[in-house]
Every structure is written in C-alpha cells, then in structure tokens.
Design brief:
The chain has about 130 residues and is an alpha/beta fold. The chain has one domain (about 5-125): Rossmann fold (3-Layer(aba) Sandwich). It is built from 6 helices and 5 strands; from the N terminus they run E-H-E-H-E-H-H-E-H-E-H. The protein has helices at about 15-25, 35-45, 65-70, 75-80, 95-100, 115-125, and strands spanning about 5-10, 30-35, 50-55, 85, 105-110. Helix 2 (about 35-45) packs parallel to helix 3. The longest helix has 13 residues, at about 15-25.
Length: about 130
C-alpha cells in the first residue's frame, strides 16, 4: 500500500480545520494543521508535504505572502509543492492573481467538500 499523502492545512478557523481534516482523513490523507503562514514555513523546514491548502486571510503572515515565500525556497521539491488557496475573498482576486502569487488553484468558502477533495486529488495524482 502506498504511503498516505501528506497535506498541510494553513487555516485560522478551527471549524474549517476540523471539517477539512475529517474529509481528507477519510480519504487516507495525513493532515497537519497550522494557523498562519509563518507556521507553514516552520513546518516546511522540518518536514516534506505533498500539498498545501492555504487560507488567504490569516494573521501573522497571509496566504499570498506565505505562498511567495514557499516558491522562493531553495529546495526545488518544497518550492514546487502544489498550493491550493482557500478563500472567502475570491472576488478580490482572480485566478490570474492567484497564479501570479504562485498558487496552483483555489476553492472558495464556504467550502464545498466534494470540490475540495476533487481539487486536492487533481493536484496530488496527476
């Protein structure tokens, strides 16, 4: 059996973290959750992940800043990790804005968990 895929969830809402964990763990993903972009970078220093779900509006370091920092990492595996934005502010951004920031895709809030799961699988099992 294959190793479970490791997903890092960056989200400041505990409710969304718990729902997302439940949906993804049901599909045998290994989930780690953090509350801001700075914690994402700290986790990436110590571990490898297969995908990041990135809230755009977070305290300390937002998702756009964090994505740019991830893309600037020296490790090519880590700097090219698929990052999917989770956002309630999608009207303020276009997919083009997300792509320019280095995001691979986005799912808008309130989250449609079927769409979230299909988006995650699309980027993990290319």
């Amino acid at each position: 059996m294959n190793e479970p895929k490791k997903v890092l969830v960056a989200e400041d809402s505990s409710v969304i973290i718990n729902l997302t964990k439940n949906v993804l763990m049901f599909e045998n993903f290994q989930i780690t959750a953090v509350k801001n972009g700075k914690q994402v970078l700290e986790k990436l220093e110590k571990e490898n992940y297969d995908l990041i779900l990135m809230d755009i509006n977070m305290p300390v370091m937002d998702g756009i800043q964090c994505t740019k920092a991830v893309r600037a990492l020296a490790d090519p595996k880590k700097s090219s990790i698929p990052i999917i934005a989770i956002t309630g502010n999608y009207k303020n951004y276009t997919l083009d804005d997300f792509k320019k920031a280095g995001l691979n895709d986005y799912v808008q809030k309130p989250l449609d968990y079927d769409l979230l799961l299909s988006t995650v699988k699309k980027h993990l099992f290319k």
